[in-house]
Amino acid sequence: MSYHIEQRLDELFSPKNSGGMRVFLFAKFYEEMLREYFEQSGYQVLPGKPRIFWSKISVPSNALSDNHRRLINKLKTLRESRSHCTPDGLFLCGRDYFVWEAKNWVQELYPSPFADRVWDFAWLLAKQADYNGRSYDLSGFIISWWERENGMDEALAEVRRCVYPLHVELVITKDVLRECIEAQYDWYLSLMDRKRENINQFFDVLLGR
Fold this sequence. Notes:
Blueprint: H1 2-12, H2 19-27, H3 30-40, E1 44-45, E2 52-53, H4 66-81, E3 84-85, E4 89-93, E5 96-103, H5 114-117, E6 128-131, E7 134-137, E8 140-145, H6 152-163, E9 167-172, H7 173-183, H8 186-206
Parallel strand pairs: 5-8, 8-9
Antiparallel strand pairs: 1-4, 2-3, 4-5, 6-7
């Protein structure tokens, strides 16, 4: 069952099968789907988005690796050119706050592997996030990525060493989709029905119905 679902997802988003349009369509609501999934998984998903101000991030004095140095250099560059970034969400679990960033590119259409791209995420060096006029100490980060890749586990382990004691969690969106399809969660079916109805109305108008 799981393999069959994954195969169908690969075919659905393949560039050979007009996957580019489908990826664009999915991009319009995958964050909504993931937010609901996290809510159902025990996180409180706060409304709106936080900000991370580059000037509030302390620049590490020592690099633990070449990749860590790349992350530090990225932070230095951003401190000179921009004031802040706006991650996709702020989650609360118990008393712990987590910044969420969703990067759900299908790799055939965006060939930048996690093991390379993650070292551009200078916000991983943050200890605080600003939300609704207040600063909150962070316990870690949650990154959503489309699918598992070669070198991903090694890169994640290195990232965790570089930002310790903060935690970094990686959630694979394709795995979430597969779970939702298999489990047929009520909230997921309701969301898909709403999106399908919206799309059907769009094409009905274009077809003059």
